[in-house]
Please model this.
Amino acid sequence: MKTSIAGSIVAMVTPMEADGSLDESGFDRLLEWHIEAGTHAVVIAGTTGESATLSHEEHCDLVAHAARRAAGRIPVIAGAGSNNTREALHLTHSAREHGADAALLVTPYYNKPSQEGLYRHYRTIAEAVDIPQILYNVPSRTACDLELETVLRLAELDNIVAIKDATGDVERGRELVRRCAVANVAVYSGEDAATFELMRAGARGAISVTANVVPVKMAQMCDLALAGDFDLSAALDDELRPLHKELFVQGNPAPVKWALRRLRMIPSGIRLPLVELDARFHDQVEAAMEHAGIQPADAARNSYG
Model:
């Protein structure tokens, strides 16, 4: 593979105070927690990190801060996608300049480019910025689907090293894994519920929302799958399966932020137009947390009550 990054890659939330201001100390606490827990890499300022409502300055500063704080202890992947190729170039340049190990580039959303437009978008960025780049296909959010043949064209570029597949289509994902292996391009599951099946087919890990809440178990599950121990990996996945579902019961990252608040890891802030998780969902998210073996007391050392 063109990249050595594999395993549980957390799509890390961006902690915020109740007024929406960034909580830098909370950010540092989460990053250290993931390093201690064995998380294999972090994505900063992705969808779960509320990139859509971060200013460009906040976005770039978060990536720079994460790279400094990580100090080589864990790979830092910067969210750098946009539906504006020039803006994506700017964010990818910034990621490289600030020490990120790779950039994650979502397909351009809203403006619905053709496959040729997608190819040229990604090729332009890959040829301009010398940093490993991860394609990100999530049609349910972008109204834009990156087709397999376009992925394989892009795989010919040296610094296109992986793809995050968040289509939720396991059969399609298996074919993606099979075809990308020939091109030495890694596939990461972008849907927690599909991770085990895709890893059994040869995917190299997951860019995970669930890992925000259960970093140790997600790391263990991925390590076991990478080692070919699918029986034990499946057993862990069974424990996490309700959480995979309930963390998407409302718009991401509202449920995962509520769960982390419940664990006293972060304050309650989230930016409009998203709002805190509706109270009618609290019991089912908490039940999923309990099924995964976690309780609020597990994080009692943290400062948020």
